[in-house]
Structure formats: structure tokens, C-alpha cells
Amino acid sequence: MREHIRQPEGLPPTNAYSHVVSYSGRTVAVSGQVPLDSTGDLVGRGDAEAQIRQVFRNVSTALAAAGAGMRDVVKLTVFLIDLADLPLFRQVRDEYIVLSEPPASSLVQVSGLVNPEFRVEVEAWAAV
């Protein structure tokens, strides 16, 4: 069960996220996913959109392995190297996330990820 809680005096959420999501059920934690394909090869060298799409494919695959799906995501944490990639990130995210009940979300600009060619990393929490 999932409930999106509106803060009576808080700022309204923008850009497809909720300030508070309460849930019950089995919790699934997905480690930070990076733009590597199933063979471990980098996808989208220098191409932010291709990397973001691969990251969401990886999140979806990890969730499916645990019997969950993107509809079950209650929290995303996003790490971007360049905030100029944010519009592309939002565009791709919105293809994967149910916008009528968006998860809680955090976005962090970082100076680097474990591989200097990675432009994005996403971790997720889901409840099933």
C-alpha cells in the first residue's frame, strides 16, 4: 500500500516527484545503476540520453528480478554530473515513472562517478 502525503504548509512538488510517500509491504532496494549493458560495456559514450535510458533499463531489470516494477518505486536518488542533462533526465524518467503517483526523489549534482565516462547514476527503493 502506498500513500502520497501532501504537506499542508509545504511547497508543492514540481517536476514529477512527491515530498512524502508512505508505504507498507516488502521493501526492495536497488543499488545505484550506471550506464552499463548486460555485458558490462558502457552505453552512450558521451551521449547523456543514451546513458539515462540504459540506467532506467537497468533499474527496471533489477526491480523485475525482485518481483517489482517501476510502478512500485517509492524513492529515487539521482546523481548527475552535469545539470544541463536534467531536461533529458526528466524526459526519460517520465517514460518510466507513473506520473499520477510519482515517487519521492532526490537529485544531486556530483563532480564525478566511479567511471569518469558515466554521466548519471540512479538508485531506487520500491515497495511491493
- In DSSP terms (H or I, runs of 4 or more residues), the helix count works out at 2
Largest sheet report: 4 strands, mixed
Query: If strands are numbered along the chain, what order do they take across the biggest sheet?
Result: 3-6-4-5
Form type:
globular
Classify the fold: give the CATH topology.
60s Ribosomal Protein L30, Chain: A
Q: Uncertain regions: pLDDT < 50 for 5+ in a row?
A: none
Measured distance between first and last alpha carbons? 8 Å
| Text of the CATH class | Alpha Beta
- The amount of beta strand, in percent, is 25-35%
Record field, number of beta strands: 6
Estimate percent helicity. 10-25%
Task: Provide the succession of SSEs.
Answer: EEEHEHEE
Number of domains: 1
Query: So what's the oligomer here?
Result: single chain
Rg over alpha carbons: 15 Å
Estimate the mean pLDDT confidence. 91
CATH superfamily: RutC-like
Describe this protein's structure.
- There is one protein chain.
- The chain is an alpha+beta fold.
- It has one domain: 2-Layer Sandwich (60s Ribosomal Protein L30, Chain: A).
- It is built from 2 helices and 6 strands, in the order βββαβαββ.
- The protein is globular and about 45 Å long.
- The model has no long low-confidence stretch (mean pLDDT 91).
Any key phrases for this structure?
YjgF/YER057c/UK114; four-stranded mixed beta sheet; Enamine deaminase RidA (YjgF/YER057c/UK114 family); two-stranded antiparallel ribbon; globular; 6 strands; 128 residues; RutC-like_sf; 60s Ribosomal Protein L30, Chain: A; deaminase activity; alpha+beta
